[in-house]
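Re: beginner question about structure tokens

> Can someone show what the tokenized structure looks like for a real chain? I only ever see the sequence side.

Sure, here's an example I had lying around. Input first:
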Amino acid sequence: MREYDADVEATAPTWISFADLMTGLLGAFVLLLVGVMAAQLDMASQLETEVHKRQAEEQKRQSLEKALAIPLASGRITLNNGRIGISGKLLFQLNSDKLEPEGRKLLKSLVLPLRSYLQSRNEMLMVSGFTDDQTIKSRNRQFEDNWELSAQRALTVTRTLIEEGMPSSMLFAAAFGKEQPLVPNSNEKARAQNRRVEMAPVPKASSSVVPDQKP
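And the corresponding structure tokens:
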């Protein structure tokens, strides 16, 4: 009888160790499973967000195409990734910020559809000026560099849109100079493509924070 008790006592720690091991493995498996499920849920959420984002972008593109159907069909403007492009030669002579009559006519035709589009989406319009990479060679040296030329052209377009009926609160001007060319400035045809003005609808800045006003 004592020998039997001794055998039980000798084998009991082994079974207890094995049970502890299995319990630890089961716990580790459960933690791993929970981690995998959490990662899958996170990926599903990210995928859903991306799908909604792309659907919104596509809806925005279609709405903008519909609003600008006539000038797009005429080929006077382009639409790429939500940016409305106008060739510089339609608006200005080389190295000039004086708007051409045909350019003013084009901008006037854009005011009504753009204003309606912006109002329906509570957005505003960023008007951006771009140049090629060539040094300005105007005789009177009116502009110091391409930054200044692109800024003045963007301002000219902005002011013209306002004169033709676009509320001033709906747009602002930006200058990019020779940066962000559409194509490499390898020849005159390419440089002509890069001399342009673009207009892009963008979300309005949050008005929840009101700056301090001095009396």
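Each token stands for a local structural state, so reading them left to right follows the chain. Helices lie at 2-67, 69-74, 88-91, 101-121, 146-163, 188-194.
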